[in-house]
Amino acid sequence: MRAKHVVLVLAASLSAGFGMLFWLGAATAAGPIPVDCGRACLEGLVNQYLAALVAHDPKRLPLSADVKYTENDQVLDIGDGFWNTATAIGNYKHYFADPVTEQAGFMGTMGEADHLVLMAIRLKVELGRITEVETSYYRPGGGGPSGVPDLDKAAKPEALWYEPPSGPRASRQQLIATANAYFAGLQRNDGKGYYPFTDDCDRIENGAHTTNNPAIQARSGGFNAMALSCKPQFESGYYAVVSKIHHRRYPLVDEERGVVWSYAIFDHGGTVPVVHLTNGQSVDMKGFNRPSSIEVTEAFRIENGKIRRVEMVGSGVTYHLNPAWPGGLSDR
After folding, report:
1. Torsion angle, alpha carbons of 109, 244, 302, 223, to 10
2. Which residues does 84 contact at the CB level (< 8 Å), separation at least 6?
3. 145-199 pLDDT, tens per residue?
4. Is there a single domain that holds both residue 313 and residue 186?
5. Which residues of the chain have pLDDT under 50?
6. Residue 301's closest CA among 255, 233, 234, 266?
7. Cα separations in angstroms, 178 against 158, 184, 303, 305
8. Is 144 among the domain residues?
9. What is the CATH number of the domain that holds 236?
10. Across the strands, what pairs with 248?
């Protein structure tokens, strides 16, 4: 009787074992990701993600069982949201990689129904699986300058984003400190802060140049901040409407290329209807007379301790949104 019981238990164990092996085999059909997933591997993973996205099939990806997925800081089941509406991979593709923390980033255009949207993705890899997928979307008409069609025509970013910067290589901590100085200078901007920009600094926000671009219509009084380069903009005090920049995170840093990938929430308290510039001018800030916030994904190209390029994807969110992702600096 006891021997029969042992045989039955063994048979059940073997059956369960074969079931587990079958499950593992099915789970690894799209992977696993190599243990040492370098730059080429991470960029390839982004392409794999884009292909799965337009196929509306997350099973094509090597996902962990507890993968966390968000769209504009809203937690969703992966396969929901944009996974149902994506129609095509756009022309503009900007890749980011951090082999040290095994994270990949991407900013690019995508088709949704009959129009283009701008998308930012961050993928995190652990133990051969994708454990985090953080996405942000800008859909034209969502406010602020927009140049998504122009960005799509450009197809790729400036070459300098992919080149090693001149001068000594900065550490991860130094790069993050420089990127954080951008947010510190923008918050409650008074024109008197520390603004580490190169003379030829340029910024793209949602596909549109928001520096060195005199074509953008000036505010009342004739002041056109968008015609200025990065440092003169900050020195003007024009961004005094930004009351707080919180939940700043810097999950992806590419030390080889001097690039920092960041997240933050910009709050506009709505209490600064007129900005008094450092040159004595006053600017009417219509459109910022109510509480509002923007969730931004922002990438910085840094050289010799100064920011040379900025690229951002941002959309309006609930005022003072507390993001779905923990951590980050508050307002320093």
Report:
1. 80
2. 56
3. 789 999 999 999 999 999 999 889 999 999 999 999 999 999 999 999 999 999 9
4. yes
5. 1-29, 332
6. 255
7. 21, 10, 10, 6
8. no
9. 3.10.450.50
10. 329
Token look-up 């509002």 returns: 292
DSSP conformation class of 87? E
Q: Which domain holds residue 56?
A: 33-138
Calpha distance 180→260 (Å, rounded): 10
CA 128 – CA 141 distance, rounded (Å): 39
Q: What is the pLDDT of residue 330?
A: 54
Distances (CA, A) of 44 to 37, 106, 270, 318, 329: 10, 11, 43, 34, 31
How far from the centroid of its chain's Cα atoms is residue 54's Cα?
20
The backbone torsions φ and ψ at residue 208, rounded to the nearest 5 degrees and listed phi first, read -110, 140
Place of tokens 């997925």: 69
Distance CA 200, CA 187 (A): 22
Q: Say if CB 179 and CB 307 are below 8 A apart.
A: yes
Task: Give how many domains the chain has, as a whole number.
Answer: 2
